Queue: 2 jobs
Job 1
Amino acid sequence: MATATRFRTLKDMPTVDYISPGNTLCAGCGGILAVRIFHKVLGPNVAWVNAAGCMTVTMSYPLSPLKSNWLYTAFASAPAGAQGVRDALDVLIAKGKIPTTEDMKVVVVTGDGAAYDIGLQSTAGAIDRQLDFYYLCYDNEAYGNTGFQVSSSTPYGSATKTTPATARFPVGNVAKKKDLFEVWRSMKAPYVATLANSHGVDFLRKVEKGMGIRGPKLYIALAACPTGWGFDSRDSVELEKLAVAAGVWPLKESVNGVVRHTIVPRVLTPVREYLKTQDRFSHLFEPEENAGAIAAIQESINGYWIEAGAREGFQVKVPEPTQAKTPSS
Amino acid sequence: MHDGMPTQGCHPVQGGEHVVKGKLLTGNVAAAAGAMLARVDYVPAYPITPQTEIIETIADWVREGKMDSRFVQLESEHSMLTAAGAASLAGARVFTATSSQGMLYTIEMLYNVSGWRAPMLLANVSRGVAAPIVLEPDHNDVLAARDSGFLQFHSETCQEVTDLVLLAYRVAEDRRVMLPAIVNLDGFYLSFTREQVILPEQKKVDGFLPPYEPVTPIRASRPVSRGSSVFEGFLYSYFRYNQHGAALKAKEVFQEAAREFEGLFGRSYGPVEGYMLDDADYVIVMSNSFTALGRQAIKRMRERGVKAGLLKLIMIRPFPTEEIAALLRGRKVVAVFDQNLAPGSGGILYPEIAGALYHVRGRPNAILPVVGALGGKQTSAKELEAVFEEMMAIDREGKTPTPMFLMREEELGRVKKMVSVAEGKS
């Protein structure tokens, strides 16, 4: 899989920025960081097409932190907006009405609410039509902009405002996180990848790789969310690193349907280490530990990595699910 | 099913002593022909009865190389309108079409596209809305878009469909307006009915409708933010008032364009059109294809010596308040024929007409609300004559009008029979 890349170490991250500092997002927002890194690789000529979410509120008339184009569409149909922009550029260039120098990369940017739930139909349509576009989903695993309600990206065990942990519902959200990577892959998208801000080189290379592929290129970036998840905003990147180390957030890509894990955590950090860092999981530890729920989460992670390892030929040392039961401190 | 407009289907037909000068086109093909003549760049589409023939026709023409446009079928009307508005913002001239449920499904995007000030065109082929599901026309679909900020032009004939498409682009893309527009035609009565249509000459159309010049398109060389949020009411109000001002301006721009259109093509259009209005005491206000039935009823009333007349609404947004006031002033009684129903209120256009007349000196003594032809219900000249008789009775007896809901005895009988079948009684 070795291909030429201009990104070998973090030092190769382009210093140019297309997003000004001082925007209106929360301190420590993993979402805007992902957009910023993504943009660095794509370069200046970009048309962002947005669905309702946290990014929407950064473009507040008359201000914009972006040095590129922006179009807010609606919650459900950003990929269709990308279709319109892409088709218009193509037809106007073909008719000679605008020069080819006006061509742009068309990028849908949405949160997980739009990507996993309300906008899935329009994404499916864009993939079916093999639209030449990028999709960047910043995934904070709930409807963050409205105050953290459950989405189909919310993992088992997370409390949200609409799945609060109570005595009768001690786990919080009992549904499992939708596997959007597999959903998109099954729709024959030529390139699908997951990203984490903590793994910059992996991130940069995946965007770079997408640029060499025609058709839909879809990315799910982990977006640590200090306000929704409940942690200190300075720990955002560390927390994403921990998510990868614990195997909660697999870093992988699919090229024409062939999946490869790009970062393999050889020895998984017990998931409790990750869960303990965030208020959204605090009910799993207090007032008393919900050992069953934590073990179930660990088992699900273990199962994922054992299966992936068997398929791709790598080995991961997984923690005993019961090990999760013993307090580590 | 549909004609290849330029080559087939252009058979001048001789019928009796009449020689049909134009091509015989369905309303749907007439709409597609308007789009072709307007040299649209982009047609995002999604099928729905009775509109589908429009997009099939365009798909054919594009694939046969007769039309230099990009055609793409989306996965819903909501996405279709999103793509349409986005492409318009990127500088393309955009055409699309819908009906009924499709219009309702994309309502959210109508408001967005209009707020973006993206001057695209949407042909709506009217069809009643579910439930119960129905295929034939009434105007609840297009009137659901009434407050969206789309301009609205309604057609009585297939000729008007083609002409209004061209006029609508001229108005929508005018720098004083910059708003999207709907051209409405009735399902079945126009969509699938062939009428003679004189297609304007392409060269003249090109002069009338030059290529679209976007104001601040999405461009690599000069990035823009479109659809930005505003978080303060005063700023929101500013943009909304602007939109309203532009919509109001569209009337004057339409009148200008219509004068030029008449000079070039010899057909004249206004925001409203009168029929036998000069001395009319009793006037019915109508729109779209059923207006033709209104004309027949008026002829019959005139034969009976009744001074009957008709006012047809072509432009419904902006609402032509002044024209309505000027033409209805001094009449004895006016009836508003609403081919739509707002349950719990009545006809949708009635209060708008009444509002237009309230401050008018010499306003009609009474305004009669009439609801009819829902779901394309066959409407007889007799039903419309009954409306005129009611107007005369109101005038004679000085009574307050009570709303009329048109249905014939014979139809009611059929309903009763079907209800008894549904109940298992027969």
Job 2
Amino acid sequence: MTAIATTAGGSARAARRRSMSRDRRWALRWSYFFLTLFAIFFLLPPAYMLITSLKTSAEVSAATNPWWVYNPTLANYAELLSSSQFLTYFRNSAVVSTVVVAVTMLISVPAAFALSRMKFWGSTTLATGVFLTYLIPETLLFIPLFKMFAVFGDATGIQLINRWWVLLLVYPTLTVPFCTWVMIGYFASIPRELDEAALIDGANYRQVLTRVFIPVALPGLIAATIFAFTVSWAQFLYPLAFTTSTDQLVLPVGIITSLIKGDVFNWGQIMTGALLGAAPPLLIYAFLMDYYIAGLTAGATKG
Amino acid sequence: MRGKLTRRRFLATTAASTALIAMPYVRGSHAAGRLSIVLWDHWVPGANNTSKMLVEEWAAGEKVEVQIDYVNNQGNKLLLTTGAEAQAQSGHDVIALPTWLPSDHANQLEPVDDIMQPLIKQNGAVNATVEYLGKSQGHWIAVPATIGSQIKGPCSRIDLMKQHAGIDVQAMYPAGAPPKAENWTLDTFLKAAEACQKGGFPFGIGLGTTADSVDTAGAIFHSFGAMLVDAKGTITVKSDPVRQALEYYTKLAKFFPPDAPAWDDSSNNKWLISGRGALIMNPPSAWAVAKRDAPQVAEQCWTHGMAAGPKGRFAPFIPYFWGIWSFGKNKEAAKSLLVHLSQPVAIERLVAASGGYDLPSFANLTTLKTWAEEGPPKGTLYHYPNPYSHQVLSIAGAPAPPKIAVQIYIQGVMTKMTVRHLQGEPMEKTLAWAENEVEGFLRT
Amino acid sequence: MADAVIGQATDARNARPRRFGLRSAMRRKSMTAFLMTSPLILLIALLVVYPALYSVNLATLNRSMEHFVGFGNFLFLFNRETFWMVVKQSCIFALTAVLFKAIFGFVVAHFVHNIPAKGQRKWRGMLLVPWVIPPAMSCLAWLWLFDPSYSAFNWIFDKVGIGPIPWTGDAMWARFSVILVNVWIGAPFFMIMYLAALKSVPEQLFEAAAVDGANFWQRTWYVTLPMMRNIIAITALFSLIVTFANFDIVRILTAGGPIDLTHVFATWAFRVGIEVGDIPLGASVSLFMVPILTLAAIFILRDINRRGNEA
């Protein structure tokens, strides 16, 4: 009796397992199907940028099939990459972004450490207040900032307006708050025993930070770095307002102001410039993708 | 704060005394030192080189160290730069100022009566629009620049206008001869627009809030003598000329492309170059790009005058200016440079380098060789600079006080009125809306 | 936030008597803490707070910036029909965009979570691209895709017989386009956050629910959403603030048109303040955003704090 029941039960279970794996396979197929749809949606514009960048302006104007290149040409790329102006923009962007990343890390990491580990008067307010700086839009701040920099330049003789290094001062206002917030999240998740142990061993806070926290929270640091880099690279309004001379411009502003003149848009070149302008963040992202994603989510799950 | 007041008072007295004396500018032998200038970044490849050469020739002669920055108004860059420099009282010495900026920053600009009066004597009178935009309280505060100034008149397709509208634009505006355009009225314009739209090649005129769209609306309104605010600053929205103008333009707008309300300044260029339109209101930039990208379209283009309305024939004129900041450190050199750039020889070189796009604002300089010879088709630009003065050059918003007119212009009130009425709003409601908007512009 | 919890824990520990080193340890700690946060405080005070206060001052001046008018600019704005239109449009834009970004992100995160772990990395990578490209560059691409004369989309529609769509020409389509681009850029961010949160939900909870007979929808409602509540709130808040203050997308695609029907605070402030030259009015418009956003921020952060304390 039991044997029959077991066998019946066994075959029923096996049947259920078979139907479950069939359900699972269908779920997978649907998942891939929708994922493909979404991927097409998300990747369509960059693909179109690429297609347009391979066209001559005659082909663009001729309004033939926009999704196909009849006479592909690398002339746009050659022109841009050999233009010293473009290379200057590129160099300026690279220098500014790298330095801003360094500055951001130097400011946010110690601050995050202090705010997450050391309770002191006003630390809660400060942590929330840091986040609230995002409420104040750039379009509001750039005029008073311009005036401040002009006054500073007159007073000290160090020219800030129309120099790329002024961006080193303003970009951190955009990157530091979020990076601090992310690092607070990461640091808060590090078990207290680690730093307690170090403190008992006689380390001071600086050593706890450098010897214990930074190594453990390295993925978060890298993620914050990548965020800061991407944000700095993509900035448009501040460099537009603060830099004027061609050799001081950064890439996004340089592309838009030198490839679009008057009412003449040179779409082939513009798309090429846009792709080249988007390339560094994309490349960094491609290589360091896991850290990037881990860092984004760290602030969320641990904060 | 106190410092600022004192400086402003000082400037006011200086300006007053300059006016009293009104002596022509004499180039001193002390134009030396350094000068930093902003020039409009030209879209014509190579045009910047000519302006650079002109400036450097002058600099070598005067032993001045010059730094030139080329800036265009993409992303409102020029606007941001001038606004920020004016606020901070620090920046370049000479700056290119589009259309409305001289009156915006009148307080911070050095009066240039001493340059303008001899130039006018030498080069001929300037038109009323230049005076309207370049003068503040009776004093010249900026010099009209050749670089960037333009007329946004009609640029038509010879073949399409002949085929669909039965109009021969080349006969109407022959190259090298005065125009024969008595029949070129707004009624003819309307009929032609309808015919071309039915033929599948609508007129490409936008109804957005960028300059191209607003300028055309402005010319139409002026043709009916319609103004939203008069010269004294009184609101005249609910007047008969305005009603007539709005009625006409709405009728005309029915034949525009359906997404005209969203057009920006490049849309009409693309409309012409892609071969889809029979007429656009634009300076020769569209034709020039067509020469490169769509030659079969370009050789059918002809730039000519605007149609006449009941109160006259008006065409949109968009001047650029060169201004000298009052906080600049080398005004001697700046004035000398502006005089140099406004000499007929320099102007001719600038016009040639821009392929005929740049327009000097002086009456004696509307028949330069460049316009007669540019092609194909040869003579396509002959009537671009309005050589027989047979149309009045105006700007949308005039004759309202500039501080009000600039708001009417930037906010595109006239085109918005047209779009609202076109989409079904009763005229009185549209006028009431416009009046409400303009009331807001009166704030000081 | 987390600090409240941490702060309490630290207090509890410090209460344990370590008398000798306590006071000097506290002094050392405060000193070090101060040194460590001072660059942050300096940066924000000098380059954010001070200019912000200056802008507040600007907003109280008249147009020529010579007289003090207090709330005059705000009262002026409240009388303008366009202003209230901008307020309405900004709110609708921000709320709709964030809602769709959240939905998209949630849905895609589920799909990515479903497929075997090996493939996830690749798909995640592809799907995050829109967020990584600088918005100024991708907006140009969208502008080109929506172009009235050359739209690549309209070309396809033409081939299949549907008429051309006035992507930026008609008010409703223009609003749609702006929201579409905003969702395109922002949804990947949501997807990544939700994916990480999904991964942190213990698998046993799902299995237990399945054993209890719950179907997919019930599991989502009773298990997934409550567990992810914090993430949803934080991401939504951050995105709401950033979307509300958005400038680039509207500016590049529609510049606020047609007839001002896609203007949001930042673009209208720019037009009124910079383009027309009435800087105090522009400052007033921009500042009007701040109370709205602060209210939203406080509301949501308080909710998170409460939940954090409960958990």
